[in-house]
Write a structure and sequence with these properties.
Number of helices: 2
Strand content: over 45%
Helix content: under 10%
Oligomer: single chain
Structural class: mainly beta
Distance between the termini: 44 Å
Shape: globular
């Protein structure tokens, strides 16, 4: 029941301090702890906590200071987590990553034994699943952010029973740093190719280093597959202006046109 904003923290060469706001959107107080955790992608592309930090991962953790390390938030309230960056003087140019983890703590009622349906002699166990959340912390030292370009688009069925449409857009990242973009999908009808109609949007798309490619599913709204036939789907990609603390290099809009057959 924790709402975390922003969903990523980026330290550029001119940024030394950042804030993360944690809100309790539940009906009960939430106690939680905060720590730094190193994560890497496994062979299936899933982020996993590492068993042993590399030398670089230990270095990144040492550069980050944050407070508080634990807190309790009342219902409807929020907590500010302050982060500070201390870089060593001999830090090599590049991008460095770690993650900030928020772990809810079990309350006294979690796991308690309660009567089952009021029946004498019968009990049930009430269990609450506690799920930790993480957000990336990115340090871009001596570099600027990377660029993301759309390189392929495929129309797919998705949703319950495949009743809805989506554009699966493949992005390619270039440059040294991670890239953060917003994307708009427009339809250029065959009968009126100059009258573009926006049919899908996605914000906050992130391509983190070292990944070079990533596919994103963007739902197509308010249109049927038959209306796409013979037309062109256009993907317009813009750098995300709201990246907190970031200083991206990409400025031009990247466009990909794909005829629909």
């Amino acid at each position: 029941m924790l709402l975390i904003n922003p969903t990523r923290v980026i330290f550029s060469d001119t940024t030394r301090a950042m804030e993360v706001h944690v809100g309790n959107v539940g009906k009960e107080p939430v106690a939680y702890t905060i720590d730094l955790v190193s994560m890497r992608r496994d062979k299936n592309g899933n982020l996993r906590e590492v068993e042993q930090d590399s030398e670089e991962e230990r270095l990144v953790k040492e550069m980050i200071r944050f407070a508080p390390r634990r807190a309790t938030i009342e219902s409807g309230k929020r907590q500010v987590v302050k982060l500070m960056l201390r870089k060593p003087g001999d830090l090599a140019p590049g991008e460095y990553q770690t993650r900030l983890r928020f772990t809810p703590q079990a309350s006294k009622q979690d796991g308690q034994t309660t009567p089952a349906g009021g029946s004498v002699g019968k009990t049930s166990i009430q269990l609450d699943v506690l799920v930790a959340s993480t957000i990336p912390i990115i340090i871009q030292h001596g570099i600027t952010g990377g660029e993301a370009s759309p390189v392929a688009l495929t129309v797919k069925n998705h949703g319950q029973g495949g009743s809805e449409l989506a554009a699966e857009v493949k992005f390619s990242r270039s440059g040294v740093g991670s890239a953060f973009v917003d994307a708009t999908v427009s339809l250029l009808p065959a009968a009126a190719p100059h009258e573009a109609q926006i049919v899908g949007q996605a914000t906050g798309i992130a391509l983190y280093t070292p990944d070079k490619e990533q596919s994103v599913l963007i739902p197509i709204k308010g249109i049927k597959r038959a209306a796409l036939a013979g037309g062109t789907l256009r993907v317009s990609v813009r750098p995300q202006c709201s990246v907190q603390g970031g200083r991206g290099r990409q400025t031009a809009v990247k466009i990909l046109d794909v005829p629909v057959r």
